[in-house]
């Protein structure tokens, strides 16, 4: 059985100035998590504690949650706030979505469950073949509505932090259109809140989806349903 693991920690920007080095090699006990490593480092370099709750974790150049278990040879980086500012919980963006930073954003020691829902562009809708999707939003209002929906969910299910990111622009099949991440003391509340949030987004958020069909046609979702509802009904007699 391995008695220890050896990892490399990389430091950037203010963290590099606090520690006085760009990287260092540490020997840890097996089973050490990223979060536990950060606590060890804040004891060694007390000024790092000021960044707790304001940073992201990365292992081998990929975002990771604080409960990620480290392995021998891993490279760990603690990402301080970048020039664009801290990660925001409610965002409408044309950029690709990544769940790992949102998991890190919402998790807390008293939260026993984190549920992540990813809405992914599929290759069909309503019995028709889809080529790609296009999303449009009223960005400022949409982000405010996402925050309001999350606040209602927290009040209803007594959850912890919630984050929602939604894509706009063109999405190819298989790309993530929306991420809903909910932290809660227990899984039942986390699952229920995540499902309700997604339903409410579809109902009230000023975000619209356009299906671009494989046959070259295109249609905003909602228009087709409304047209069918208004169309004359043929008698079956």
UniProtKB/TrEMBL annotation:
**InterPro entries the UniProt entry points to:** Beta-grasp_dom_sf, MoaD_arc-typ, MoaE_sf, Mopterin_biosynth_MoaE, Mopterin_synth/thiamin_S_b, ThiS/MoaD-like
Tell me the keywords, alphabetical order.
Answer: Molybdenum cofactor biosynthesis, Nucleotide-binding, Transferase
What molecular function does GO assign, one term? molybdopterin synthase activity
Q: Which GO terms describe its biological process?
A: Mo-molybdopterin cofactor biosynthetic process
Under catalytic activity, the entry for this protein gives: 2 [molybdopterin-synthase sulfur-carrier protein]-C-terminal-Gly-aminoethanethioate + cyclic pyranopterin phosphate + H2O = molybdopterin + 2 [molybdopterin-synthase sulfur-carrier protein]-C-terminal Gly-Gly + 2 H(+)
So, what pathway does this thing act in? Cofactor biosynthesis; molybdopterin biosynthesis
Q: What is its EC number?
A: 2.8.1.12
- State the Pfam families in the record: MoaE (PF02391), ThiS (PF02597)
The record describes its quaternary structure and partners as: Heterotetramer of 2 MoaD subunits and 2 MoaE subunits. Also stable as homodimer. The enzyme changes between these two forms during catalysis.
- List the PANTHER family: MOLYBDOPTERIN SYNTHASE RELATED (PTHR23404)
Classification via NCBIfam families: moaD, moaD_arch
Q: Which family does it belong to?
A: Belongs to the MoaE family.
What this protein is called in its record is Molybdopterin synthase catalytic subunit
Which species?
Roseiflexus castenholzii (strain DSM 13941 / HLO8)
